[in-house]
Amino acid sequence: MSYANNLAPIACLSGATAVALGAFGAHSLKDRLSSYQQESWKTAVSYQLVHSGVLLLVATLPALPSSSQAGGARSFAAAALGSGIALFSGSIYGLCLTKEGDGIRKALGPATPIGGLALIAGWVSLAVSFRGGIAPRLR
């Protein structure tokens, strides 16, 4: 996989960032966030951490030709998971840190479910890559 050299460090940095943001939320923000926002923050951190681990797994899988269906599916999975982390968790962090009425919240709100869909697409695409692509297999 040609992107693996870049993907593994990105996955590791995303995981490290999740740990740092978890600590930040638990200690520095505990008096600033409502209980609902604290739970949202924890959700964002846990999704970021889990999917960073999956990205690291994708980066360390044996290489597949990107021209193959399975290789293309795996490349798509990496892109979908990475963008899903940024959109899903990033938008929740932003929503927790901004006040009601802030204009940016209009963009952040829809980003959360789009990010969730990207994460789902990443998992499905990863499953397709393990199957060897989407073409039916003849026995």
From TrEMBL:
Membrane topology: Multi-pass membrane protein
Coiled coil: none
Cross-referenced InterPro entries: DUF423
GO cellular component, one term: membrane
Location (main, coarse): membrane
Keywords tagged on the record: Membrane, Transmembrane, Transmembrane helix
Subcellular location: Membrane
TM region positions: 44-64, 76-95, 107-130
Superkingdom field: Eukaryota
Stated name of the protein: DUF423-domain-containing protein
Originating species: Tilletiopsis washingtonensis
